[in-house]
Description:
Elements: E1 7-9, E2 16-18, H1 19-28, H2 30-36, E3 39-41, E4 45-46, E5 52-58, E6 66-72
Antiparallel strand pairs: 1-2, 3-4, 5-6
Amino acid sequence: MADRDSKGTCRFCGQSYSGSGIARHLKTCAKRREQQDKPLGKGQGKAKDTPIYHIQVEGTYLPMYWMHLEVPGFLK
């Protein structure tokens, strides 16, 4: 049976985490918070002022393949 707890790398800080640990890590990642304090673009405000949708994707038949996505939800 395949290992369900494969490792992945946080794109913000470069540290390696398990699939079950990355969601917890993203809540406390200091480098991620630094990114949220930066302006998004002209007239867009800061990332922390924008709703962010966290989407977790996992392979149906191969659960060792997973990805966490964050998508800004711009409301106008």
